[in-house]
Amino acid sequence: MHITQQQPNFYLERKYAVHGLVVGVDEVGIGSWAGPVMAAAVWIDPKLVASLPEGIRDSKKLTHIKRDRICTELLKLNISIAVGSADVKEIDSLNILNASFLAMERALVLLQEKLIGKINTILIDGNRKPEFKTFYKKINIMPIVKGDNISLSIAIASIIAKQTRDCYMLNLDSCHPEYGFNKHKGYGTKAHRASLVEFGPTCHHRSSFAPVKSLLS
Question: Residue 89: enclosing H or E segment and its boundaries?
């Protein structure tokens, strides 16, 4: 689905709520050379929409400080949130796309356990429709191109996933400070490449990714 919107809103969530609970899901870390891929799933109680913090949008358009502020305010509102991940071994064995779907599915399973009602519609950022084995086929799975600019649920999921993964990479940096994970979060910068050449890959690097694979061959 292609929809042009400037700011994410609650239109799709309200539209499909007549059929059951509508949740948004988004992932982060697909292009990183190291660390897991993480996904967040979010259900927003319609009663809380008016109380949501200002500035919610695609996490890539927000600074760390703004994302942190939004996350803090969201937690105070008791928004229904769950995070799932797929580790480096799963990324290397399944490929990054399937691993990202696995992370999404894990987040959705955890979210469903928190909810009283059943999830009926899943809004997913992107243009691919994954098959989640743990959900019934009758569930409406809707890929939304640039969904984190369109759906509030997806936008919040993108922020939560980004903050969670950034915290993970900051912890990883304390174990491997020579790689600078605290700065690039595992993504392919010149400094990261230089560290890989000098120190070699860690067990946290994705061996199936070309820049890492070339050093292992």
Answer: helix 88-94
Q: Which two tokens stand for residue 119?
A: 């999830």
pLDDT in tens, 95-140: 999 999 999 999 999 999 999 999 999 999 999 999 888 876 778 9
CA 104, 31, 197 angle in degrees (round to 5)? 135
**By the 8 A CB rule, do 55 and 62 touch?**
yes
Please answer whether residues 71 and 65 qualify as being in contact, where contact means their C-beta atoms are separated by less than 8 angstroms. Answer: no
Structure tokens at 182: 């605290």
Nearest 5°: CA angle at 103, between 45 and 68? 55
Using alpha carbons, select from 176, 195, 190 the residue that is nearest to residue 35: 176
pLDDT tens by residue, 128-176: 999 888 876 778 999 999 999 999 999 999 999 999 999 999 999 999 9
Strands 21-28 and 119-125 come out as parallel
Give Rg (Cα) of the chain: 18
103 sits in the region (left: phi over 0; alpha: psi -120 to 50; else beta) called alpha
Length of the chain: 217
Domains and CATH numbers, the chain: 11-176 (3.30.420.10)
DSSP string, 174-201: HH-GGG-HHHHTT---HHHHHHHHHH--
